[in-house]
Amino acid sequence: MPMMLPTHHILPLTHLRRLRMLTEKGRVLVRSGQTVEATDIIAEAPAPGQHLLLDVRKALGVQRVTDAERLIERRVGEQVEKGDILAQTRGLFSRILRAPVPGRIAAIYKGQILLEVASQPYRLLAGLPGRVAEVFPERGAIVETHGALIQGVWGNRQSNNGVLTMLAETPDAPLKPEVLDLTLRGSVIVGGICYQPEALKMAAEIPVRGIILGSLSAPLLPLAASLNLPVILLEGVGQIPINRLAFQLLNTNQKRDVYLLATWNPRLSEKPEIVIPLPADGKAPEEAVEITVGQTVRLALPPYAGNIGKVIQPHTSWLQRSGQRLPAAEIELENTQRVTVPLFNLEIIA
Question: Can you give the pTM of this predicted structure?
Answer without folding.
Answer: 0.79
